[in-house]
Structure formats: C-alpha cells, structure tokens
Amino acid sequence: MKTTILTEEERKKALSTTKKPEVVERQKLNVRYHVEDIDVNDRPRRFLEAFAAILKHSNYKMVLDHFIRMTARCLRCAAACQIYQATGDPKDIPCYRSGLLLDVYRRHFTLGGLLRGRITGNGYLTDEKIQEMADTFWNCTACRRCALECPLGLDHGLITHLGRYILSEIGIVPRALVVSTRAQLEGPFKNTSAIPVPALKDTLEFLEGDMFEEKGVRIRFPVDVDGSEHVFFPAVSDYLMEAESLMGIAAVFTATGDSWTIGTGYYDGINYGLFYSDRIIERVVRKVDEETNRLHGRKILIGECGHASRTAKQFIPTYCGGSDATPVVNILEYTHRVWKEGRLKLDPDIVTEKVAYHDPCNYARNRWIVNQPREVLKAFCRNYVEMTPTGEDNICCGGGGGTVSIDEVRPYRTTIGGKLKADQIRKSGCEILVAPCANCKKQLRELVEDQGLNCRVVGFHDLIYKAIIFDESLRVEKEAQVIEKEK
Amino acid sequence: MGALLDFARGPLFRLTFAIMVLGLARLLFLDIIGMYRAYRRTTDKKMPWKLIFSRSFEWFFPVKRVIRERHVYSLLSIVFHIGLIIVPLFFFAHVNLWKEAVGISWPALPYSWAFWLTICTIASALFLLISRLTVKAMRALSLGRDYLWLLLLLVPFVTGFICANVDVGPGSYQVLMLVHVLSAELIFVLIPFSKIAHCVLAPLSQVVCALAWKFPPETDDDICTTLNKKGAPV
After folding, report:
1. Which of B155-171 are b and which e, b meaning 16 or more Cβ less than 10 Å from the residue's Cβ?
2. Mutation to test the A interface, candidates B27, B139, B223, B230, most A Cβ within 10 Å
3. Can you give the pLDDT of all 487 residues of chain A as single tens digits?
4. In CATH, B2-226 is 1.20.950
C-alpha cells in the first residue's frame, strides 16, 4: 500500500507550529513539540556525556557496534515508512535517521572514528546535529515497520528509542510526556491523568449504575480485592474517555465469574518511558509490580492499550524477576480465551455494520496479538472486513511513539503521520473501526475528524459490551430492579 | 608479467584470503562476545527464538518481503547477491584455483550457466549503480563509498568475463587477468573492514536486536550517579 506525497498546502498545515519565536530563540531549539526550559549551554558535550553514561550501563553498545560495521543504505526501509511516503523528504527515511546517531557513535566512541576525527579535524557533534536529531527522532511514530523491511535486520525503532533516551537526559523531550510522567511518579495521585482515588471510585460506581440500568445485571468493578487472579491496569485515561471499553471488560468478567480487581494504590498502566527513557520504564514497571504484590494478585492484566501492554509484557520480566516475574496478560488474550472456552456468549445480531480491525503496532509487530481479536470479531460481527496490509505488517495509526499525547503536533499527526492509514481506512469502507489501544483510539478519532472519514472508532470491548449475552441466573428481576433503584 | 601473475594467483591469493577469513572471524568473535556480555547482564533470559528464526529465514530466502515492495530493485539485488557468491566459487577456473590454493575442490558450474550469471551480475550491478545515481532518495542517502563499492565489485566481473570470452591477444590477456586477480584480492582485504561484513554479520542481526530490547535491570541509579542527577525530579 502506498500513499501520495502531500500537497504544498497540506505541508504548510502539517508543519505549522504554535511555538513562539522567542521560545525557540531562548531554548535554541526549533522543534514542533514544546520543551521545558533547559540548560542550553554546551549541549554537544552534555549529549556525549549522557551517551557515554548510557552506553556504560546498558547493552546498546553491542547493537551499535553490530550495525556500524554493516549498514548498507539500501533504501528498502523507505518503502515501508509512512512518514517518508507522505513527506518525500530523504531526512525521513528510517535509515537516514538511524544514521545520525550511528555517525555520532562512530565518530566519538570508536577508535577509528576518533583517529579519523583527529586527523581530518571534523565530524564533531554540533548543536545543528542535535537539533536535527531532536526534530527527526520525534517525527518517527516508532511503529517499527521499517525493521521488518530491513534485509540486514536493523531495528530502527530501537535506535530511535536510544536517540530519544539520550536527548531526554539533556532535557530535550516533549513537555507533555514529562509532565504526565512527573504526575505519575511524583504527583499526589500517582497517575498520568491526575485522577484521585475518590473520583475513580465515583466513576466506577456511576458506571456500575449505568450498566445495571442497561443490562439488568449487577456488573461490578471490584476494588482492592485481596488475592484476585487478575490485577487490572488500563491506560488511566480510559476512566475519563473510554467508559464503554471498561464496561465491556467488567461485563466479560461478570459473565465468566473470574476474579479481578482494580488497586487503589496504583491504577495506571501507562508507561511513557517506552517513548523516551529506559530509566522511566523501570520506575513505572516496578510500581505496577508492587501494586500486584500488595494485592497478592496472580496475574497482571493490562487493558486496551498497546504500549502499556508491550511495556508490561516485555519489561516486567526484565525488571521484576526474570522467569519468576508475575505473568502479564492483555485483556484481548483473556477475552479470546474465555470465548474459546465457551464461557462468553455473544449475540451475532447486534452489530450489523461493516467492521474492520486496526492492529496496534505494539500488539502485532512481534506477532503477539494478531488473530485472537479477529477470531472473536468474526464470530459475532456479520459484516467483518479486513484491511490490508494487516497483522505484523499493519500500518500505524500515525500517532505512535508517544506523539499522540503531544497535542501541539496534531496537525502533523493527522496530515503526515496518519495519511497512509487514512487511505487504508477509506479503501476498506468500514463503518466501525475497532482499535483496542488508547493511543490508536485517540489518534484515529482525530484522523477521522481531520481527514473527513466516514467511520466510527471504538474499542474492542465496546462491541463486546453491546453483544454480550448474560446467563439468565445473573439477571436481576424487574421488580428487584425497581426496588434497587428506589433505594 | 607471468611471474607476477603467478605470485598474485598463488601466495598473494592465500594471504588476502587469510586476511578476509581472519578479519571476518574477528568480527564474529567480537559480536558474540558482545552478545554474551549483554545476555549475562539481563535478568530476562527468555529469548523469542521462534520469531528470531522466522525473521532471519525470511531474509535468507527473501521471497515474502521482496514481492511486496520495490519489485525490480529488490529482484535485481537478489540476482546481484547470487552472482557475487556463486561465480567466484563455482566457475570452473575458480574451482581449480581454490583446489591449488586451499586444497579442496568441488564440482564446477556448467560454462553456459557461469556465462549468463556473470552477465546478469554485471547488469544488475549497473542497474543498482544507476538507481543510486538517479533516484533522489537514494542519492541523498548514499555515501561515496557506496558508489565505489559497486564499481570495485564490477572490476573483477568485467575483466574476468572478457578474459574468459573474448580473444584479446596474449599480452592484453595477462594484463586483464592481473587486474582481475588483484581487484578480487583487494576486495578480500577490504571486506572485513567495510559494510560488506554484512555477509557474516547479517544473520545475527535478529538475535542482536532481540537481546538489545532486554535492558539490564537497576541501571537507573547508576546512570543518575554518573550524570550527577541523583534525587533530581523526573
């Protein structure tokens, strides 16, 4: 699948910025995203210091050494990159982007590079090069589709991840992400959306009331239940924006009768560390593990959120005990399992519109969750259509890599980042687009709005909630309902 | 001239070949040491072997990916690679050379196969060179050495083809043959120090990347201490 290069008018719109010139001047940094005021002096030296510190305490040296010995600049990755396809700017080619950091490594951290640099007297890291990296590393949506197309197996997503990590250590990181992470790790409410526990409980109670009215079944959100099988961590923004998805999840648990709980000590699955810092990943992941241990939960259950699921799945074993770590399950895996076991019944006559499924990159790129949601959807959505390419080759929504949380880059995301995705959605002709990821949902809704697409973006469990059939024994009699209400 | 050619085909061939083998062995060794160190530092020892093998094999037999994007370019790249590997190893004159120099032999390719494969290799190399020169994005990405490598790889193929198929007279033949042998030997020497090292390193890439995503634990403190940021707010 290909898209066309954007027009001059679109380019102007996409690259527009709300930043004031005096801020750019003061911060000596011309990027689209907002950055907190930082030390602007001696940036190259500090960049190299941070680079050196990270290399010393990580495994990146191995991967950089491996790749500086063999990058061939074959340009296959360009065909896969949706950003490059939209801009046509060689600077957006994944290999070029990775090359920026590989060059710094070659010049400053290898013997050959140091000698060559000494002899020729050039190649030293400059402010301009840092500026270029700060710009281009945050243009990338970190979807890692290019890594599949690289014949040499270079994971550009990993290099971009490292580049952002180093930049963040010298203060160059989108303000939106740092502020949220600060609220999560150091704020009074311990989550990125700053939702206090009483507000959370209120929301849950309100949703319980709603569900009771709609379904006639007492569906609960269990809070702080000790010894539950699953401890639930959704993207915390779901409590504000994705009530239907949460209701669907609660409904599934009510139907199956399995135990689950939301912990009030910590209830945020979001981990922005994946987008800019390994140190942050570790801090956040440890909090998830601590809360699960506090509640003596047996499994960590992550809600409909791609990056939260991937960070938990991948980094709980990394940071919290290797093979002894608490197992991580995504809610789609759980729902698929109980459906397969016949413990979840869905009505095939409810959803009649044309439904398509969007693969979040963090689920599908490593072939983790690809077929499970499809099997369930095909079973109860009569009019299911597939978008191509799909599964591990899926096209990113255009807001990956944390960019969806940076509101000031919305024009960029919906004009350049999601251009290919918009074409794909249009081609599929779907009326309902299922996106089981908080990031994808937000980005796709904005994309639908800005590109004038004719479809509705919902979560996977939104549809489950609509179509779920409860066992008669769970149904509360009409009279009892009235009495309950009057109470 | 004859003595020089014998020297180039004998001792010099053995020397340059040895440099290539040792150089590549060194790179492999360094890579494996790096991976071993990384593996020791991680707590999560479970590697996704199934994914790693399946991704690696996709590129050993690059059918699945290649038919999707940039068809002509990708197909010709494959032809180019096949030619680069097969002709030096299986052309009958080369089989004799290997037998004399290294002492082992194997069946040679029929003459007509070698003839057409050489032509295909030269044509695909020219195509790759032209696309590097003409496609805007490729030009922006390419460095001087990318063009030079293609030209250098063309030299032994073109000279070898002329020697084997065109009657140029004994004097020119010897000169061409000398250029043929020396350029091939130059390539041998350069391989371990250039991007062509991917011939042995590329199969390891998937393992390297999978391992690189397994970060070592408890680096937060170390990095903060090194950067003088201990206790600083997020």
Report:
1. bbbbbbbbbbeeeeeee
2. B223
3. 888 899 999 999 898 888 899 999 999 999 999 999 988 899 999 999 999 999 999 999 999 999 999 998 888 888 899 999 999 999 999 999 999 999 999 999 999 999 999 999 888 999 999 999 999 999 999 999 999 989 999 999 999 999 999 999 999 999 999 999 999 999 999 999 999 999 999 999 999 999 999 999 999 999 999 999 999 999 999 999 999 999 999 999 999 999 999 999 999 999 999 999 999 999 999 999 999 999 999 999 999 999 999 999 999 999 998 899 999 999 999 999 999 999 999 999 999 999 999 999 999 999 999 999 999 999 999 999 999 899 999 999 999 999 999 999 999 999 999 999 999 999 999 999 999 999 999 999 999 999 999 999 999 999 999 999 999 999 886 656 666 666 6
4. yes
A200 and A142 co-located in one domain: no
Measured in Å, how far apart are chain A's first and last C-alpha atoms?
Answer: 58
Average pLDDT, chain A: 94
Instruction: Please tell me which of the candidates A69, A181, A323 has its beta carbon nearest to residue B46.
Output: A323
For residues B228 and B226, what is the distance between their CA atoms, to the nearest angstrom? 6
Q: Which residues in chain B have their CB less than 8 angstroms from residue A389's CB? A: 68
User: A224 with A164, same domain?
Assistant: no
Residue burial A68-82, b: 16+ Cβ < 10 Å; e: rest: bbbbbbbbbbbbbbb
Q: Let me know: does B113 contact B106? Beta carbons within 8 Å.
A: no
Domain end position, chosen among A120, A147, A173 = A173
Listed as own residue / partner, the contacts of A92-95 with beta carbons closer than 8 Å and 24 or more positions apart are A92/A136, A92/A139, A93/B137, A93/B140, A93/B141, A94/A140, A94/A146, A94/A150, A94/A156, A95/A71, A95/A146, A95/A150, A95/A154, A95/A156, A95/B141
> Which one, of A245, A239, A305, lies nearest residue A462 by Cα?
A245
Size of interface A-B (CB pairs under 8 A): 172
Contact B34, A60 (CB under 8 A): no
Residue A394 lies in a domain: yes
Decide if A181 and B234 are in contact by the 8 Å CB cutoff: yes
The domain tally of chain A equals 2
β-pairing verdict for A355-357 and A432-434: parallel
Among residues A462, A478, A420, the alpha carbon closest in space to that of A5 is found at: A420
Q: What angle do CA B169, B171, B172 make, to 5 degrees?
A: 70
As a whole number of angstroms, the distance between CA A167 and CA A58 comes to 16
Structural domain containing residue A463: 183-469
- Are A12 and A95 part of one and the same domain? yes
Chain A residues whose beta carbon lies within 8 Å of the beta carbon of residue B212 = 59-60, 62-63, 155, 158
* Rounded-to-integer distance, Cα B109 and Cα B164, Å: 14
Task: State the CB neighbour count (10 A cutoff) for residue A126.
Answer: 11
For residue A240, count other CB atoms closer than 10 A to its CB.
11
Identify whether residues A23 and A127 lie together within a single domain: yes
Token pair, residue A119, equals 């002899």
The identity of residue A162, as a single letter, is L
Contact, A307 vs A274, CB < 8 A? yes
Beta bridge partners of A299: A230
B70: left (phi over 0), alpha (psi -120 to 50) or beta: left
Q: Which residues pair with A174 in a beta bridge?
A: A35
Looking at the structure, tell me whether residues A81 and A223 fall in a common domain: no
